[in-house]
Structure formats: structure tokens, C-alpha cells
Amino acid sequence: MTEQYQHRARKRFGQNFLHDAGVIDRILRSVHARPGEHVLEIGPGQGALTEGILDSGAQLDVVEIDKDLAQILTQQFAARENFSLHQGDALKFDFNTLGAAPGTLRVVGNLPYNISTPLIFHLLHNAHLIKDMHFMLQKEVVERMAAGPGGGDWGRLSIMVQYHCRVEHLFNVGPGAFNPPPKVDSAIVRMVPYETLPHPAKDHRLLERVVREAFNQRRKTLRNTLKALMPNEAIEATGVDGSRRPEQLSLEEFVRLADKLHELGDPA
Fold this sequence. Notes:
It is built from 10 helices and 9 strands. It has helices spanning 21-31, 50-55, 67-77, 116-124, 139-145, 156-164, 204-216, 222-225, 232-237, 251-264, and strands at 17-18, 38-42, 59-64, 83-87, 105-110, 130-138, 165-173, 178-179, 186-193. The longest helix is centred in the last third of the chain and has 14 residues, at 251-264.
């Protein structure tokens, strides 16, 4: 057994290493990296996807937090001219340092489930740089990201991801594809940032605030969950019924509420 596979998965980094060749091939075909493209891989682990991306001829930057894995990856791929490694925390990584032109960076990763949501929000703040993203995530997280209004999966994550991106749930992956096997099913999601936002808010931060407040108590009506931000008359003035629950509202309706808040002036 080579040194590459002697690394033991570390719980604190949420490591579950992908080893199923069929799944690896399916992910690589979904990404379909090409020569001359700029790809960023987050959490390459033992390099399951790394080699295939490098073989495509794309320029690949990888971000790996685990120093031991970073050393193994360097030993394995340092001779490849299209490989660059950044040892550090992806949550703190400045994507502008990659020098990617706007709308060109392709992001790939088998994301640790314990940081997947904050990492996605970190990436969304850099959406102007990104062409597309392909991630392995916990299946229920992908279902929430791809959900539509009216169901229990529709919430803050769905709305803020779909504000920025077109979301596609590609396929599911069972626990047996990993070592060690996680206790949950996984799924691959494709996220493509919009060149022009379909429902642009006047103030993106206010949209985040309205959505967060609305879903803090998702079983309550909007007039109750948003009462600290705006009176019911203001809600009704947007054409939204204040007696509805937040999960019943579309993205476009949340943007209308955020724009109304902008018009009223941001409350302290």
C-alpha cells in the first residue's frame, strides 16, 4: 500500500475519502474540465479527483487544510506544471489571489459536511469570479439547495443560493463510495452563477437579513417573524400577504420585502 492511502481520516476535518472509481469518473464527466480552464479544488484529500482534472489539461489550484495531506499531494503532483497547492482553510481563503478573470473560475470539491454551508456562503460572496461549481455534499443539503417554495426544504440556504445561482441536483452517492463511510447519503450538485441576476435586490445584505429573520421562526406568519423589521402594512404594500408563512414565499417575493425595507430605511 502506498503512502497516499496510509493517511487516516481525521474527524476534526470531517474527512471521508472518495474511492469508488465509477463515482469519481461520473463526477469528472459532469465537471468536464478542458485545457486552458482554471479549476479550484477545495479539499482534494487523497487526490481522487485531482489527477483526472490535471489530466484534462486545466490549470488546477487546490486548497487543503490538512498539512499531512498537503505534503502527500505535493509529492504526488508537484511535477505537474498545471498544479498549484495552497495549504490552509478554505473558509478563510481569498479567492482573488488566484488571479482568475471574472466568471472563469470553476470550483470543485468533496466538501466536509461540517463546514459545507458556511463555505458555500463564502463562495457566493465571490460569485462574480465563478463560472460554475460542482460539489459533493450531504444529500439533504443538496435537496435544500435545489428546493422550491412550499415545502419543508425551502429555507435560507435555498433562497440565498438560488438568488445567485441556477442549481441542479445531479445524482446521489451512497456511503460505500467513501472511506470511512459517512452515516448519511451524499449527492452531487451543480451551481452556475447568473451573469445577470433574475431578481436583483437593492441591498443584498438586507435580503439576507429579511430571509434570516423570516426563517428564524418558520412556523410563524410573516407579520410576526418580520415585525422587528417592518410593520404588516409595509409587508402588505409589497403585495405579499402577511398571514403567510415564510416557506410559502418565492425568492422574488423575498426580494420585494427586502426592497421595501431598503425604502423604509434599515432599522437599527
